[in-house]
Amino acid sequence: MPATTCFGSNDAAPWKAVAVPDFVQAYRRLLSTLPGRVLVLGLPPVVDEEGGRTSALVAQYAAATAQVAPAFVPLHAALDRRHLAEDGLHLNDAGYEVVARLVVDAIG
């Protein structure tokens, strides 16, 4: 079973403001600490932009993560607003069902 990690949208929050290059460097370091096969889940999907995050910025994090991840599951491409909880950020049950199916497919 591979080590599985996913990135969240906290780094894209205006009050955290982690620049994409800094995020990539830190994420690369994080991935290097995980033993064996690593599977990275490409979260988050679109976000409710009323909270200050933008889907365009989140997409930049997803693209950057795909470049450094040894194995990348593009969950963000399979999820949309229908898969978000009422807070407009976290996944709802339907979103987690999509995630589970894609992870199972990725690990075989």
Could you describe the 3D structure shown?
- The chain is mostly helical and 108 residues long.
- The chain has 4 helices and 3 strands, in the order E-H-E-H-E-H-H.
- The chain has helices spanning 20-32, 55-68, 75-78, 93-107, and strands at residues 3-6, 38-41, 72-73.
- Strands 1-2-3 form a 3-stranded parallel beta sheet.
Please tell me how large the radius of gyration is. Answer: 14 Å
The pLDDT mean sits at: 82
Briefly note the structural class of the backbone: mainly alpha
- Largest sheet: spatial strand order: 1-2-3
Number of strands: 3
Tell me the β content: 5-15%
Secondary structure tally, helices: 4
Helix-strand blueprint:
Elements: E1 3-6, H1 20-32, E2 38-41, H2 55-68, E3 72-73, H3 75-78, H4 93-107
Parallel strand pairs: 1-2, 2-3
Structure at a glance:
The protein is mainly alpha-helical and 108 residues long.
Fill in the keyword field for this structure.
single chain, 108 residues, mainly alpha, three-stranded parallel sheet, 4 helices, 43% helix, flat
